[in-house]
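Aim 2 progress update. The chain analyzed this quarter is reproduced below.
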Amino acid sequence: MIHVFREKGQKPIFFVTFTFLFLLSLGWLQRRHNLSLPHIVQAVPNTVTQTSNRDRQIALPGFKQTKLPAASVEALHNETLGFEKVYVINLAKRTDKLDAIRLAASVTGFNLEVIPGQLGAEMSPKALPGPFKEGEMRDSIVGCWRSHMQAAHNIVNNRLSSALIFEDDADWDVSFRSQLLNFATGSQWLLNTPAGHTPHSPYGDDWDLLWLGHCALSPFKTDPRRVLFENDPSTTPFKHRFNLGEIPDMTHYDNTTRIMYATNGGTCLYAYALSYRGAQKILFHLSMSYYNRPVDFGIHDMCEDEARNFRCIGVFPQMVDSHRGAGSSSKDSDISHAQEQVRKKGFSYNIVRSTRLNVGHLIDGDIDGVESQWPGEVPELEGDVKISFRETFQD
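Predicted structure tokens:
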């Protein structure tokens, strides 16, 4: 700002004139380029609040959000599940997987946009953030890494407040939308949403990653808070839980309880959501900076390293896992290649009433025909899922 004084102690003679000319020029820019002031001054999308650890919203115990505001419930019922976009990562040659997940999404009532999967063999070594280890799986690991980086890239490029990202073999329970309502209630509480406040995102503000689908997910040892979903018929029975890493100690809970918590990372990326800030950080740490490992290892490290200020929330048992279809087992993965077998019927890990296995019933509207993967082993429960909040509960 320009200040020109006539004599000491007098007001600037050009202050008003300069301010008027500045605002007039902004008005010309708005008309000339169809801009608005928020487009000029806004640095990040405002639908997920961006704050530092120091400035995060604090709500006293007993005064945090324990019930979803009406606006959050309404947002969760949209065709993108309360996010701005829902993506699926899919290799162009795997039309079979794209057909299957689009069909599953259609009967669940949400829209998918495709992130084209990348082939590691086609990538220039100069595009890699580090020298990935040579070996049989190198090209698959590189392709998987870049595919997930592309999802983060799309969020940043399109200035999305958030997006949910699926891998194309993902499956979920037929009650997925109801599960998300419960998950959003839990995440708002874990994010210290004050009672009566409506956050920009139905999942709460100030998160970086929501980890819905994984093959292991551990809690932060320094954060004992838990959200419990008891009497939940979609919870995988103990003996059918299959994971490949550290998980919470569930011996304190019965067979029908699912829990939520702040997580320090996990393995497998069947389904996860990123905020705009979360996508920015992933691109910085796993693409722009030195990196040369499988992508889920990197995201695990980001959740674990508190210095990176990358806030992750997870759920166990997982709400999304991978499906193995009928036919040759060689179709299962585009990363690893196990010994080929032939299945007469498909299955999904850790999902009680698989959407994919029940898609025929759902297309026909035959709700009574929906089947559990483990008939007789999941009790018939009465009443709603009971949600409770524990400030100091230890696993």
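DSSP finds nine helices and 15 strands in the chain. Confidence is low (pLDDT under 50) at residues 1-44, 46-62. These observations will guide the mutagenesis experiments scheduled for the next reporting period.
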